[in-house]
Design a protein that fits this description.
9% strand; alpha+beta; 3 helices; 150 residues; 28% helix; 4 strands; two-stranded antiparallel ribbon; binds zinc ion
Length: 150
């Protein structure tokens, strides 16, 4: 699933109205014209909505009692919300502030399924190899070093 929730510039259009928990919100595509508080409020509302979506995914997976299942949620990037006068994302990694590359990586596993290794730093590179591991798919390009599951 691609949620496209916390992706600028129109954060306020990335969640249904009932998820507008934090107000006032930025309503402009020109993010520099909004106060940082309005921008953060709109962004945080996308997080509220993403939380709801992930909770629904987990509930649906939990209902499939006969299956071992997992959910991996990872962002493609973070977003700058006016820190250092930067907005959105796309600054080359060597120059980017941490807001643009320190991203959530959330994993849920069903009861009786595989466990998750205790890892300090993981990246998007772990997704591919972890999915292969979880599904017991054999491949010559599989790399155990990039697998999150025990
Ligand atoms: Zn993106």
């Amino acid at each position: 699933m691609h949620t496209s929730t916390s992706h600028g510039p129109t954060y306020n259009k990335k969640y249904p109205p009932q998820f507008e928990t934090f107000k006032p919100v930025c309503n402009s595509v020109e993010l520099g014209k909004c106060s940082q508080t309005e921008l953060i409020n709109a962004y945080d509302n996308t997080i509220v909505y993403t939380d709801y979506i992930l909770a629904q995914v987990i509930e649906n997976l939990q209902a499939l009692k006969d299956f071992k299942s997992t959910m991996i949620f990872v962002s493609d990037h973070g977003e700058s919300l006016g820190e250092k006068n930067l907005y959105m994302h796309g600054v080359p990694l060597s120059l980017a502030p941490k807001e643009q590359y320190e991203i959530p990586f959330i994993v849920w596993v069903s009861e009786g399924s595989k466990h998750v290794k205790s890892l300090n730093k993981i990246t998007q590179s772990y997704v591919f190899h972890s999915v292969l591991n979880f599904l017991n798919i054999q491949s010559p390009i599989y790399n155990e070093e990039l697998n999150i599951y025990k």
